[in-house]
Design a protein that fits this description.
alpha+beta; 7 helices; VOC_core; metal-binding; 9-stranded mixed sheet; single chain; 2,3-Dihydroxybiphenyl 1,2-Dioxygenase, domain 1; about 300 residues
Length: about 300
Amino acid sequence: MAQDRQDAPLVRCIVAVSRTVADLDRTETFYRDALGFAAVAPPEPVPEPILAALGLAGTDARRLRMRLGGQMLAFLAFDPPGTPYPLAARANDPVFQHVAIPVRAMEPAAARLVAHHPAAISTHGPQALPPASGGVTAFKFRDPDGHPVELIHFPGGAPAARWQDAPGLFLGIDHSALAVTDLERALAVFRDALGFRVVQRGLNRGEAQARLDGLPDPEVDVLALEPAASRTLHLELLHYRRPAAPPSPPPYGPRDRATSRLVLAVRDLDAAADALDGAGCPVRRTGGVAYAEGPDCHGLLLVPAA
């Protein structure tokens, strides 16, 4: 059921992006030393309501939460682990979900990053996109488990203004971008069911975009969507018109390293779960949280807004 436009939006903010990893120590070292994150606390057991919502009640699992500025990543490690990140997955693959980290200056940020030898997605280093594609300079790479990450430098305007008071070289998390194969289906979930606002829409293509994505001759719809209470971190939808997305892989479960989850703070958990159910995303509810697989199996973990 589409959200009634007279109601307040169901999603207040994106609390965190959650990723499945193999080794929390390795993950902490990389995100701390290469990207400036700090652990919120030592690794801890994953709360049982979250495991139950994921369909993994009783599983041995630990969580590491790391913060950069006002935004957070939550890493989950399971024993036994699931499958590795698929080596053949590219930027147009439905499994693709990156987090974008704005930087004060690209050259020193990239230099600090490459000292830790990440696998690059982009070719020929950071890429300056034309004004029609936002005019940003960006570089995409993979963390130790294969999850994609983007460094991004905003040349000015409202995006840069949002980050001007953030300290340091790495400023926070601007957005998480999901590759989707059916744009209208994704909008039906995020905009119509959950109440995200579409605030920007563009079509990116050209040589710089090809180098940024590591793809031949891409043409990609890029939509920015904001939750009700926060402009960062926000959501981007990436819909590749070309190259065509590869065939859907076998489904991944939450313990597999290909999986990520948006952690969404909602004003009414039951209403949000009902909205997702009505949009064709079956929801598992337990212990005050709920979980669904959204478009192209991107995970959505619902928690009550504070």
